[in-house]
Structure formats: C-alpha cells, structure tokens
Amino acid sequence: MDLWGDFLGALNTMMQPLYLAVSWIMSSFHTLYASFLGPESGWSWALAIISLTVVIRTLLIPLFVRQIRSSRNMQILQPQLKALQEKYGHDRERLGQETMKLYKEEGVNPMASCLPLVLQMPIFIALYQVLWNASQGHAIGVLSVEQSESLRNATIFGAKLSGIFWPLTNGFGATQILCAVLVISMTAVLFVTQLQLMRKNMPPEALTGQFAQQQKIMLYVFPFMYLFMGVNIPVGVLLYWLVSNVWTMVQQYILIHNNPAPNTPAYLDWEERMRAKGKDPDELARKRAGKNRRQAPTPPAADTSKVARQGGKPSGSTTSDEGTGSTGGGVQRQQVQRQQPQRSNRASRKQGPPKPKTNPGQA
Fold first, then answer.
1. Which of 306, 190, 191, 162 lies closest to 248 in space, CA to CA?
2. How far is the C-alpha of 120 from the C-alpha of 56, rounded, in Å?
3. HEC string of the chain?
4. How far apart are CA 363 and CA 359, in angstroms?
5. How far apart are CA 123 and CA 25, in angstroms?
6. Is the Cβ–Cβ distance between 279 and 287 less than 8 Å?
7. What are phi and psi of 159, to 5 degrees?
8. Regions of the chain where pLDDT drops below 70
C-alpha cells in the first residue's frame, strides 16, 4: 500500500503543472463570461469548459494533421503489408524486419496516429481531477475555495456540472438526464466520425485484413466503452468530451473534403470538383505529394541512337527501318548483309571449287 501511495503521490506531483494550466484557463474564461452572464451563472463555467476545449484542440491541430497523414499512409501501405505477410508469414522475425524497413522507406510511423489521443489523456485527467475536487469543495490549481464552491454549485438545465450519473444519491433527476444525453451524443458523434473515415477516406484494399478489423473495433466497441465509462464521469468532463468529439468530426470532414486519400470515394468526388473548377487534379496531387510523386525524367534521344549503333535495336523501331537504311540500326544491318556472303565464300573455298551458277528458271 505504501508503494501504491508513493506512486499516486509522485503522479499527482507530476500533474501539478497541468492542474495549474487547466484551472487557470478555466478561471480566466469564467471571469470573462461572468462579466456579462453573472458570476453565479452555471453557463459561465460551461462556456469556460467549452473554451478550454477549443484552446486545447487548436494547439493539437499540427498533431492531428500528422495523425491523419500517418493513418492515410498506413491505408496506402496495406497492399504492400499484405504482400509481405504472404511472403514472410512463416518467418515472424523476417516479417518484422521487412515491415520496419518498409515503414522507414515510406516515412511512415504507425504510432503517430495515436499521438494526439495520448497527449489528450493527461489533459483529460487534469480536467477530471479539477472538476472532481471542485465537486468536493476543494481548492486545486489556481482555483480558490470560493471558485471551487462556485463550480461545485454551477448548474445548466437544472443539472450540476460536478454531478455524475451513478450512484443515484438524490434519485433520478436532471443530472442523470443530462449525463445520458451527453453520453449518447458523444457516442453517436464518435460512431459517425469513424464511419465517415471508413466509407469516404479508405481505399478498397484497406477494408480487408488486420487494419480493417482494427477500424471495425473502433467503430463498434469504443462507443460501448463510452456508455460504461460515462456513468462515473462528471457532467463538466462529459461536456468537454462531447465538444472535443464534435471538433474531431468537423476537422476530419474538412480534411477529407479538401485533401482526401488517393483511390477512395472522397478522392473521386474531389477530382470531379477540381475538374468542374477547371483545375487538373493530377497536377494538384503531385504538388501535394512532393518529391515522392515526381515522374522520372525521360532519357534523351541521343541515348537511343547510341544503343542502336552499338548493335541493339531501338525499342521504338519498326521493320520499315530495315529497308531504308536511314537510321543507325539500318546501316548496321546492311553491313551484316555485306559481310555474310564473304564468310560463306570462305567456307565454300575450303570445301572445294565453287559450283557453276545455274539459272533459277531452269531449276
């Protein structure tokens, strides 16, 4: 027990900077909204939580872009990963080496898709602790005891921001109804977000295999996790969670609409829109992809003639060149034809005197 207590104490010490940051942002926005809504209004605290969500998600936009790019690259690599599994499936060590080599060559980091979620978890925990302590009337971070009491008693739609669905201490009331609405709403938003990604921004190859199974798990299992977890989470945290999920859905829609992954239904729609605007979608795609999508330079014409003079037939030549003698290949074939009778005459002289020529018409 002492070890567990020491661990929790060390974790709480490490989280103190986040407690200070979260509580300071909330109190600052609360002061702003309380100036025209009133300090006792629960909506001052509710809007402060929403503003906190916007600030955090805005700071995480670069990480979200990296997450989407990583997820998209993983989708594009699915056919190659499947080929590696078929080739080295019997050798797990070799399969792991070839997979990591492929990731390195393509510049893909599978863990990048989880980075925004990992970074949000400490913030989520800090917000949970701030609201939980406030619900107990305890000061935390920069929140004073008076502010904690204000947050503890703040209500919207008759429900306390510090209240939870379970246990039913005061019976079933407005707090339970609001908790249920928030949990169902955030579950529905998460489901729509995952469904939008799978139906619009995933190539057909990515809809099969292990990656597709992971996406289906996220589509159907995560919403049920929300239902079970939400009953013990304060209303204020559920509000933060709902706004964050809505932000993710809208942000993903904008990205899929303007920069979809290749070989997806969203990409086909984007190509049609670009052509309707008089733009070349292929050229735009090459500019976005950068060096990886640049076409290889065409070899100069002099190289082809050089190969022909060295005895090779140009890849684009036809049989009509043989009779003209206008190209290097034609000249070479004429030289071979002149040399062939000479070799034949020398062989015939070794066998004996040549036979007299006969008229073809008399044969």
1. 190
2. 8
3. CHHHHHHHHHHHHHHHHHHHHHHHHHHHHHHHHHHHHCCCCHHHHHHHHHHHHHHHHHHCHHHHHHHHHHHHHHHHCHHHHHHHHHHHCCCHHHHHHHHHHHHHHHCCCHHHHHHHHHHHHHHHHHHHHHHHHHHCCCCCCCCCHHHHHHHHHCEECCEECCCCCCCCCCCCCHHHHHHHHHHHHHHHHHHHHHHHHHHHCCCHHHHCCHHHHHHHHHHHHHHHHHHHHHHHCCHHHHHHHHHHHHHHHHHHHHHHHHCCCCCCHHHHHHHHHHHHCCCCHHHHHHHHHHHHHCCCCCCCHHHHHHHHHCCCCCCCCCCCHHHHCCCHHHHHHHHHHHHHHHHHHHHHHHHCCCCCCCCHHHC
4. 7
5. 12
6. no
7. -110, 140
8. 1-2, 72, 75, 112-113, 116, 135, 205-212, 215, 288-363
pLDDT given for residue 113 in this prediction: 65
The overall pTM is greater than 0.70 = no
Instruction: Kindly provide the b/e burial profile for residues 325-346, where b requires at least 16 CB atoms within 10 angstroms of the residue's own CB.
Output: eebbbbebeeeeeeeeeeeeee
Question: What is the per-residue pLDDT for 344?
Answer: 47
Ramachandran assignment for 158, one of left (phi > 0), alpha (psi -120 to 50 degrees), beta (any other): left
Cα(170)–Cα(113) distance, rounded to whole angstroms? Answer: 42
The Cα–Cα gap between 265 and 101 comes to 30
Phi and psi torsions of 55, nearest 5°: -60, -45
CA distance 181 to 139: 29
With the C-alpha atoms ordered 324, 330, 331, 337, is the resulting torsion angle positive or negative? negative
∠ CA 299-305-311, rounded to 5° = 120
The answer to whether residues 285 and 293 touch, using CB atoms and an 8 Å cutoff, is yes
Is residue 41 within 8 Å of residue 34, measured between CB atoms? yes
d(CA 88, CA 272): 40
- Please state, in angstroms and rounded to a whole number, the distance separating the CA atoms of residues 59 and 65: 12
Both tokens of residue 269?
Answer: 């729609």
For 105, half-sphere exposure in the C-beta direction (CA atoms, 13 angstrom radius) is: 9
**Structure tokens of 297?**
């330079």
